[in-house]
Design brief:
Chain B: Keywords: Cell membrane, Membrane, Transmembrane, Transmembrane helix, Transport. The complex is a heterodimer of chains A (264) and B (305). Chain A has 11 helices and no strands. Chain A has 264 residues and is mainly α. Chain B has 305 residues and is an all-alpha fold.
Chain lengths: 264, 305
């Protein structure tokens, strides 16, 4: 009886926290449908005017394109590097592995605004002009370790004897990698790709210092929040959120299929 | 005689191939780690070296690696400098964030492991998703919620009450923003930690008549500690470096340490001073992180039991 009451309390608490987590996102969505320029609640007149303006804006179109380009490149590079990084993290027993496991966590434990500034200094010291391409590199410093951990969790659950068997049957190393290792790791790699894209898509502190004259969606939103609020700010914010949600949903469904196939 | 001579040789043969394979594994592992190591070497360690170089450069100059002075550190260690106030604010807020989040996240982490069953995957996704929404957007949502004539104030007035409290642009709301932003970073390590607690051990203790509080204090908490500690460390470190909460929700009513670093780099155009401050923060965080990480076994935490 007491047990059931505790469980009910845990359910209630969790749902309450979830509601609180999504409350500000809902507030932003509400504000984006407000017809007047300044926010007031309850909203007097709803309109999709600001959504239309946001969609029509050429400036925002360019910013969205920059954000997508950065996120796509970050995804491709990070996943390749992190797949090998995860094998080194969790699959192979090698000298220096313990040290490597800890080294890789350091960028995650490092405050991003300071990391962004440090990278700006680094680029400046070697004379590289910052642009959206330097931001790709900056995002990778933080995202590769995260994706490595995500894929490593998949690697831990993987049976090395399958690889050994393939070697014993005379497969070359590339064959084993392509025919055995990669298919078994696909679900983890797929999750890693989703993480890479979405974390880059939403990143602000690293972009702030490393995009130079270019601008990403979170940077544009921040600039307008500080000075020059229009309902286009919550409108673009909501669009970015919906985009991320759509991608996560589609990616999650594909991931489920991959997992089912890997299990079969 | 002949048989005896051959037998040990036969035994040795498979062992040597196993050894050979083992030797090859060593190099394969290191080779797999190489791209990550190179990336972090260039992208993480080199910028830290650059910051270190700038920290000893002439104040208000850009003469990195060509001048050497301790003037920047002297400026920082001057007791009248307000950076110490910022540092205490950051540390205090970070400690409170950790304490509050531990209490908020523990029941949820417990639920994800033992109560939610088949729902726990979906609930986890709901907790992960906010990480993919820029923190600016989420924090600004709270501004819209708490602001005068905002969602809370407007709703209360509509109900005929006197309106919402004025909480925006205070240190308290900054703390609220940090707790809000860093919840997933406490929750997931904690969940991994609680997953390490063997259930049969808890059942055995219960069968032997141990009370709930006793089981929690003597079994669950100590065994889940690695995960809880990682969560605490991660949230503390991230909260020390947080700026968005103090800027967007706190309306700069307090200046946090990372904000001081940013000010040195942007408004006051004093890169060497900003670098010196960043070096101090880096040492503080680095020492804390390395100390905590040296106590942890990541293989056990992440799945290799």
């Amino acid at each position: 009886m007491g047990h059931r009451r505790t469980n009910a309390a845990i359910w209630t608490w969790t749902l309450f926290v979830l509601v609180a987590i999504y409350l500000p996102i809902v507030c932003g969505a509400l504000a984006s449908f407000n017809k007047s320029r300044y926010f007031g609640f309850p909203i007097k007149t709803y309109s999709t005017e600001w959504w239309q303006k946001t969609l029509d804006s050429i400036e925002i179109g360019m910013i969205v394109k920059t954000s997508i380009s950065i996120a796509l490149l970050v995804t491709v590079f990070s996943v390749v590097i992190a797949t090998f990084g995860a094998l080194a993290f969790a699959r192979y027993e090698w000298k220096g592995r313990r040290f490597y496991q800890k080294l890789i966590l350091l960028p995650i434990f490092f405050p991003q605004p300071v990391l962004g500034l440090a990278m700006l200094l680094g680029f400046n010291a070697v004379g590289i002009q910052t642009s959206w391409m330097t931001a790709v590199f900056a995002h990778m410093i933080w995202i590769v370790p995260v994706v490595t951990l995500v894929i490593a969790i998949q690697v831990y659950g993987f049976d090395p004897s399958l690889e050994e068997a393939a070697y014993d049957l005379g497969c070359s190393r590339t064959q084993v990698f392509r025919e055995v290792t990669l298919p078994l790791l696909w679900p983890g790699i797929w999750s890693g790709m989703l993480f890479a894209f979405l974390l880059s898509w939403s990143n602000f502190p690293l972009s702030l210092y490393t995009t130079g004259a270019d601008s990403t969606i979170p940077e544009w939103l921040y600039a307008k929040m500080v000075a020059g609020y229009t309902p286009m700010v919550p409108a673009l914010g909501t669009m970015a959120t919906l985009g991320a949600a759509g991608l996560l949903l589609a990616g999650g469904l594909i991931g489920l299929l991959l997992r089912r196939r890997a299990a079969a | 005689m002949a048989d005896l001579a051959i037998a040990p040789a036969r035994e040795a043969a498979p062992e040597s191939t196993a050894q050979l394979r083992h030797a090859r594994m060593l190099s394969v592992g290191a080779r797999c780690a190489l791209p990550v190591a190179l990336l972090l070497g260039i992208g993480f360690l080199a910028p830290l070296v650059a910051i270190f170089g700038y920290a000893f450069a002439t104040p208000r100059s850009f003469d990195v690696f060509t001048s050497f002075t301790l003037a920047n550190f002297a400026t920082l260690f001057d007791t009248t400098n307000t950076v110490w106030l910022s540092f205490f604010w950051s540390c205090g807020l970070a400690l409170l964030t950790v304490a509050i989040l531990a209490v908020i996240a523990y029941p949820i982490a417990y639920g994800l492991n033992l109560v939610f069953g088949r729902w726990s995957a979906l609930i986890s996704v709901f907790f992960v998703f906010p990480l993919f929404v820029s923190e600016n957007v989420r924090l600004y949502g709270w501004v819209l919620f708490f602001i005068k004539n905002g969602v809370l104030d407007g709703t209360l007035k509509w109900l005929g009450l006197s309106g919402g409290p004025e909480v925006l642009y205070t240190p308290g709301i900054t703390l609220f923003g940090m707790v809000y932003t860093y919840l997933p970073f406490m929750l997931f390590p904690m969940t991994l930690g609680l997953a390490l607690v063997p259930r049969d051990l808890v059942d055995a203790a219960r069968d032997l008549g141990a009370g709930r509080l006793f089981i929690w204090r003597e079994i669950e908490l100590p065994l889940a500690m690695p995960g809880i500690l990682i969560g605490m460390l991660l949230t503390f470190v991230l909260a020390i470096g947080a700026t968005a909460e103090a800027k967007i929700l706190g309306g700069q009513s307090i200046i946090v340490i990372s904000h001081d670093i940013e000010i040195a780099f942007t408004y006051s155009q004093n890169w060497p001073l900003g670098s010196a401050l960043a070096v101090l923060v880096t040492f503080f965080i680095g020492a804390l992180t390395l100390f905590a990480l040296s106590k942890l076994d990541l293989d056990r935490m992440l799945g290799r039991r």
